[in-house]
Amino acid sequence: MTRAVWKGVALLVMPLCAFGQEVPAPKDLPGSEQANAWIDKDPAVVEARSALAAAGHSRAAQAASPHEWTAKVQGQRRDYRDTSRKSNEWLAQLERPIRVNGKGELDRQLGEIDLEIGRARVGEARHEAARALADLWLDVIAARGQQALLKEQLAFAERNLSAVGTRKKAGDASSLDVNVARTDLSEVQRQASLTATQLAKAEAKLRVRFGDALPTSTALSEPQAPVLPQAPWRERVLAEADPLKIAEGQRRKTELLAARTKADRVPDPTVGVYTASEAIRNERVVGISLSIPLSGTYREQRMLQALRDSDTARAAQERHRQEIELEAAETYAEAAGSLDRWRVGEQGASIAGESAQLMQRAYSLGEADLQALLLARRQSLDASRAALEARADALRWHHRLLIDAHLIWDLAKD
User: Fold this and answer.
1) Distance (Å, rounded) from C-alpha 65 to C-alpha 97?
2) Which is the CATH superfamily of the domain at 31-413?
3) DSSP reduced 3-state for 22
4) Which of 47, 55, 168, 409 has its CA 20 to 30 A from that of 132?
5) Taking the model in full, what pTM does it have?
6) What are the φ/ψ torsions at residue 390 (nearest 5 degrees)?
7) Where does 223-353 show beta strands of DSSP type E?
8) Is 228 within 8 Å of 405 (Cβ atoms)?
C-alpha cells in the first residue's frame, strides 16, 4: 500500500479504536480524580445518590411483601341463666394476606426497575454536574484571557498617549489630540475594570458550585477536531444518554405496574389460624380462617388506567429519544462550526493587531493622523476579543462532545 492509503486507513481505524474508550481530559479541564471529587459533592448528585439508597430499601420492602401478620385477641364473658354460672372465654387468632397470581415476582421486578431508574438518575445528575463544571471552569480561564488582553490594550493606549504627547511637544499635535488620546485610554481602563469584575464573578460561581475548584491555567489551548466522526459519536451519545435510560425504565415500570394491576384483579386472600376457649373451659377450639375480597369495578378501572399510563410512558420515551437526537445533532454541528469560526477569528485578530502596530509606528513618524490610529487600535481590540471568544466557544463545544459521549471523567462508569 502507498503512504496515502495507509494514512486513510489509520484515520478510519483510530476513531473506531477510540469508540467505547475514555480519552484523557483536555488540559483546559481538571483531571479525572479531582473532577470526580467535585462532581460527587454536587448537591444534585448527593440527592440522586440518596434517592438511589432509598430505592434499595424500597426494593427490599417490595420483595418482602407489604402484607404483615396480624395478631388478634378477643375476650368475652358468658352468663348461663339456667345455672347462674359464668364463663370467661377468649379467642386468639393469627392471620396474614398472601400474594397470589404472580404478584410477588412482579413486586420484586418493580423493585429492581426502581433501582435501575435510580442509577440512571445518578448518572444524569453527574452528567449535568460535569457539564456545569466544564463550563464554569472554562469561563474562568476565558475571563482571565480577556483580562490579559485588556492589559495589553491598556499598554497600547498608554503608548498612544505618550506618542501624542511627544508630537505635541514637537508641535505636530494639538491639545485636542491629547484629550482624545486620554479619553481613549479612559475607555480602555473602563473595559479593563469591567473584565476584572467579570473574572471575579466567574470565579465566585465556580467556587460556590464546586467548593475549592479554581483553574491554575491563564490561557486557553488550541481547539481540536472531534475525537469521533459524527455517526459513531451519535450512537455513543444515545447509548450513554441517562435521560433515555430513565425514560426506558419508566416505560418498563408502567408495563410492570399494568401487569401488577391486572394480577390484582384476583384479590389476595387472608389466611389465619385461631384457637379459643369456651364453655367454662370445657371446650377448646382450634381452626383456620380464609377470607377473600370480591373484585369489582374499582380494580378493573385501575387496570385500564395502568394500561393507558404504559402507553403514555412509551410515547414519552420516544419523545426523549427525539430530543436527545436533535440536541446531539446540534452539538456536533456547533462543535464543527465553532472550530471554523475560531480559525477565521484568529486570522482576523492577527491582521488587525499587525495593522494597529503599523499604524502606531506611522503615527509616531507623522505619517498617520490620530483618528486612524485610534480606529486601528479599536479594530484590533474588537478582533482580539472576538477571536478569544471564538476560541472559548470552540473549546466549550469540544468539551460538550466529550462529556455527552461520556468519554472523560469516568462518566461511562455511571
Assistant:
1) 10
2) Outer membrane efflux proteins (OEP) (1.20.1600.10)
3) coil
4) 55
5) 0.83
6) -65, -40
7) 270-278, 283-291
8) yes
* Helix and strand totals (H; E) in the chain: 9, 4
Task: For the chain, give the mean pLDDT.
Answer: 86
Q: What is the arithmetic mean of pLDDT over 74-89?
A: 79
Select from 260, 253, 270, 303 the least CA-distant residue to 102: 260
Domain residue extents for the chain? 31-413
Q: What does the pLDDT look like over 197-227, one tens digit per residue?
A: 999 999 999 999 998 878 888 788 899 888 8
**pLDDT tier at 11 (50, 70, 90 boundaries)?**
very low
| Residue pLDDT, tens place only, 276-329 | 887 777 788 899 999 988 877 888 888 888 889 889 999 999 999 999 999 999
Predicted pLDDT of residue 208: 92
- Pair type for strands 85-97 and 70-80: antiparallel
Reading the block at residue 379, the C-alpha cell is 479594530
Angle subtended by helix axes 230-240 and 370-404, to nearest 10: 60
Above 50 in pLDDT, residue 401? yes
Quick one: three-class SS letters along the chain? CCHHHHHHHHHHHHHHHHCCCCCCCCCCCCCHHHHHHHHHCCHHHHHHHHHHHHHHHHHHHHHHCCCCCEEEEEEEEEEECCCCEEEEEEEEEEEEECCCCCHHHHHHHHHHHHHHHHHHHHHHHHHHHHHHHHHHHHHHHHHHHHHHHHHHHHHHHHHHHHHHHHHHHCCCCCHHHHHHHHHHHHHHHHHHHHHHHHHHHHHHHHHHHHCCCCCCCCCCCCCCCCCCCHHHHHHHHHHHCHHHHHHHHHHHHHHHHHHHHHHCCCCCCEEEEEEEEECCCCEEEEEEEEECCCCCHHHHHHHHHHHHHHHHHHHHHHHHHHHHHHHHHHHHHHHHHHHHHHHHHHHHHHHHHHHHHHHHHHHHCCCCCHHHHHHHHHHHHHHHHHHHHHHHHHHHHHHHHHHHCCCCCCHHHC
C-alpha distances (whole Å) from 114 to each of 244, 248, 318 are: 15, 12, 20
